[in-house]
Amino acid sequence: MKLTEINVAHMTTDKANGMTDSTVWQAQTQQRLFRLLLDAFAYPGRLFDATGSGTTARLAILATLLDAEVDLADPHKLVAREDWLRLMAAAAAPEQARFIVADAARTPDFTPAPGSLESPEFGATLVLEVRQLGAGKPLLLTGPGIASQTRLAVQGLHPAWIEQRAEWVSAYPLGADIILCDARSFAALPRTTQIVWEEG
Amino acid sequence: MNTTYELPLDEAGYAFGFMDEYAKKEVRRTILKAICIPGYQTPYASREMPMGRGFGTGGLQLTLSLIGSDDTLKVIDQGADDSVNAVNLRQFVQMTCPGVDVTEKTEEATLIQSRHRIPEKPLTEAQILVLQVPYPDALVVVEASEARRKTMHGEADYSRLLVKLYEDLVKFDEITISHRYPTRVHGHYIIDPSPIPRWDVPKLHQSKALILLGAGREKKIYAVPPYTIAEPLAFEDVVFRVEDFRDASGNRRTCSRCGASNSFLDEFSDEADGEADGKIYQCSDSAYCDEQLARQASAYQKPKTEEAA
Questions:
Q1: Active site residues of B
Q2: Domains of chain A by range and CATH?
Q3: Which of B186, B212, B232 is the last residue of a domain?
Q4: Which residues contact A31 (CB under 8 A, 6 or more apart)?
Q5: ipTM
Q6: pLDDT tens digits along A149-163
Q7: Which residues in chain B touch residue A10, judged by CB atoms under 8 angstroms apart?
């Protein structure tokens, strides 16, 4: 048997146009999206484009990371019913959930799970949807993954999120990790990133 | 790898990358948390792989969860691309990930899985280094209980580890750790950086590439993110130092193959061609050694072709 003869189950691609609504549920798309997410967390504040997934950045991120093993809180009812079924994640309260998806224009009305000293990985991951990334008021970022300092411009992020987050991450290694997204792109803010609004 | 062995084919066949998508997702979620908490040994399920634990299954699970058909993979075992562990793992990835390119050249790779070495050539932001880890916890030498170690890590309580290093100094006038040198990441967690020699430890500091470490048997994944502080544990008055490869008369030994005097050297016994003590030295990083040789060959050939013209 030659190497090429192995039947690779998921590689039978959608012949229609490859960019149907179902693309984001395919393993190959999720692998590509994961590598973008990986780069986003490794290099906080950099913008990554999720348009190749054929859906919104928000759903692309959720589809890449979630399955029946984890739970999701959706306090602002952003996820459609049919997507809930496909994500397979159990619904949970924002205080307990491993993943939280929220509208960043509103003020945060919950405290995400911070993890524990022994198991800080149970600190929640927040997917916050803003109006636009790459435009608007700049955040100044420093910390691991950033050579010296970087800027991330955000439009439609309620300042209370940044204030609250400072409290959530104040007892390192405990904390919550944030992915900011707009319709097409995303950037990550791990708990180790120090964030201030740029003056002026 | 046994070349006559064939993966069993059922109707569905194997997924790209051998692992099922749920297993990959779990590894992927773990990787992201490992990056968010630099140096923290993040637990994960560590699936059964079709090779024994201890043969790089932790690194392999990371590689298979990361890899896509547009990746170029390099696999290193103790610096060399052609030793048995590297060949096995590379063949396995080639068999289960159709479309993936493999290379021996460090600069061509987008994904590098390595056992016990970091390449000599500096890595870039476009690369990810995956290190295979046998023993992930630097505290295991001073505390047997994992529950207690987890608390110590959380509190960044490493006093007993420092005492251990101090005892070394008292007994031997030197910290005697040759590899797996305890290294503090982002000012908090101390990691076992896998059995890389001291020579490679400074490469963890402010690396341009993301470095992921996977321990399959111990079911842990941890990370040294890019542009992150990684300091080998030392004392104010006893600084960390790397191997210097000096001979008896104080000269820096060179590679007997390519002549490099700036690489990590392996020592071999060779009665015929060796030095007076029957030892011979060669670059541990075979790709680096080959590159030096190729450069010398092209420098040698250039004047020749000019002559011919």
A1: 39, 255, 258, 283, 289
A2: 19-197 (3.40.50.11310)
A3: B232
A4: B16, B24, B67, B68
A5: 0.92
A6: 999 999 999 999 999
A7: 15-16, 21
